[in-house]
Structure formats: structure tokens, C-alpha cells
Amino acid sequence: MSKDRKPTRSFFRSPPGIVLVGVALLLVGGLLGVLAAHAATIVTATGLTAALLNFLITLPACAAALAGLIFLIIGGVRWAVYDRKYSPTSRSTTAESQIIEHLRSINDRLLISDTAKRIAYREQDRNALRRAIREDIDKDEFEAALALVDDMSQTYGYRHEAEEFRDEILAARAADVEQTVNNTIAQLDQLIADRDWDRAFAEAAKIQRLYPESHRVRNLETHVRDAREDYKHTLERQFLEASQRDDIDRAMELLKELDKYLTEAEAKPFRETARGVIGKKRDNLGVQFKMAVHDKEWIQSVRIGEQLIREFPNSQMAQEVRSMLDLLRERAASEQAARA
User: Fold this and answer.
1) What is the pLDDT of residue 86?
2) How far, in Å, CA of 247 to CA of 277, rounded?
3) Which of left, alpha, beta for 45 (phi over 0: left; psi -120 to 50: alpha)?
4) Which of 33, 168, 188, 198 is deepest in the core (most CB within 10 A)?
5) What is the pTM of this model?
6) Given pLDDT bands bounded at 50, 70 and 90, which one contains residue 275?
7) Cα–Cα distance, 29 to 39 (Å, whole number)
8) Is the Cβ–Cβ distance between 252 and 281 less than 8 Å?
9) Could you give the angle at the alpha carbon of 66 between the alpha carbons of 62 and 68, nearest 5°?
10) What average pLDDT score do residues 249-262 get?
């Protein structure tokens, strides 16, 4: 007999035979149970004797059923585990083979070194870096883009392409900074036009701190200071011209504005001219007040009198107006009522 030939096995020792014996024993147990139940109805004994007889009658049925159950379990286990001929797990499918191959591929990739991975996937990494750099440039995130460029040059060795990207990023950042500087300088010029000097100086210092690399912001504070000085000189010139042509009202307006800019030393050359303008203004208001009272223009006289007191509170004329003002106000009220 050949050594490779599998020895023959008795049918009742095989898994199907054992399962069949189990089924048979279950059937026998069931039949005996029916007979035992029928016999129990015939027994006329009572008490302990009846219980003993019932036990003896049902014992064969229970033993057969238990033995059948055991044989079914043993046969099922042998069929499922030990006997390849009857086991469905002996068949391998194409899907299982593909899963095994995929797992082997993953295992192989996990085992290779990081250097080998960079070599194997360098083109994918290079394309990913390009996309990331381009996205950062489009979003004006220039510092992040420069960090990626350094990674491209140092980690992956693409120095030439990295330098091209660096030039593009620096140019884009310079253009963005230039546009921002233009906008901020325009806001600064508006503050200068509004004569808001404190805010203008603060804004100039802020711009210089934010954009120190721009050559346009280096002398902004000097620019604000020069603009303030030019405006002050314009006020001085206009004040002197208004005084020379006896435009007292305009000269007074300019004198009040000029007072915000002149120091004690700077105001000294204009002191005599200012006294003359102030005296003429006071005299003019006095003449206008007297004419309004003489012409019984009570409403106008009250307005001029209040202006004279407000602008020259310590003058002799202001004291005279105060003594008359209550009476003038009563007459002005009567005048308004009459006009109504």
C-alpha cells in the first residue's frame, strides 16, 4: 500500500456518522419518553413507591436523549475542526487572497526606512510642497510660504526651484507691503489735512514700527512736523496780511488759531500787532453796540453785547455792557413778541 494513501475510516467514526448516531439517540430518547409517560398513567402506587417507579421509567429516555446530545456536539465539533474533507473553511476565495496580499504590502511599506520612503515618494512630496506654497502665496501668508521653501531646499534638496519660489514670495510680499503703506500714508495725509497733529504724530510712529523695511516710512514723523510748521507759517502770514488791510474779524480768527502753535518766544514779534488787532476789535464791537442801542435794535444789541463780554470780559466796556444787558434783554424779548 502507498504511504500517501489516506487510511480508511469507519463511517460511524466519521463526523457524519457521529452526528447520525446522535440524531438516532435523540429519536430513541423521545420514543422512550412517550412510553414512560404512558406507563406513568398506569402505575397505581402512591408516595415514595410511585416516585421511584416514575424515575425508573423515565431514566432510559433521559439517558438516550443526553447521549444523543453529546454525540451531536462531538460530531459537530469534529466536522467543523478536524475533518478537512467536510470543513467549509478549507476553501479559500480570491477576495481573501487579495486581502492577504494587501496586508503584506502594508507591512513591507511599514518596514522600509524614512529615507527610503522619501526616495520612493519624493515626486508626490514635491508636488504637495508646490501646492502648499502656492496656497500660502495666494492667501498672503508669506512667512508660512518661506518656511515651506526652506523645507523644500534643505530637506528635499530642490534648491533651484526653492530659490525661484523665494524670489516670487519676496516680490509678492513687497508689493503687498507697498500697497498697505500707500493706504496708511493716505490716512496720515488726511489727518494732516484735518490739522489733527497729535493723531498724525502717533500714526506716523505706528507706521514706522510696522513697516521698518519700507524706505517711504523712514521720515514720516519729520514729514508731519514739517507740515505743522508750514501751517503755522501760513497762519502767521495770513494774520499779518489781515491786520495790514484792517480785516479785524479775520485777523482775530487767525490770532486765535495761531495761539495754538506759537511758543512764548515765537509770539513775541506778533505781540504789538496782536494788541492793535485786539484793541481795534474791541473798539469795533463797542461802536457796533452803541449804534444798535441808538437805533433801538435790541436783539442785535444783546448779541453784540454778549460777544463783547465773552471776548473782552475784563475791559471797561464789558462792565458797562453788563450793567445794561438785563434791560436790553427785556426790550429784545418785547421786540421778538411784537414781530411774532
Assistant:
1) 43
2) 9
3) beta
4) 188
5) 0.44
6) confident
7) 15
8) yes
9) 120
10) 82
For residue 266, pLDDT beyond 70: yes
CA pair distance 31, 29, nearest whole angstrom: 5
Residue 38: all three cell numbers together: 404512558
Amino acid at 247: D
Identify residue 41 by its one-letter amino acid code.
T
**Residue 183, pLDDT above cutoff 50:** yes
Choose among 88, 83, 101, 105: nearest CA to 16: 83
Q: In this structure, what is the dihedral angle of CA atoms 14, 17, 22, 24, given to the nearest 10 degrees?
A: -170
Comparison of pLDDT for 46 and 235, the residue scoring more:
235
Q: Which has the closest alpha carbon to 311: 251, 256, 247?
A: 256
Q: In Å, how far from its chain's centre is CA 263?
A: 50
Q: Cell 438516550 maps to which residue?
A: 64
Cα separation, 210 vs 190, in Å, equals: 19
Which residue in the block uniquely carries the three cell numbers 504590502?
105
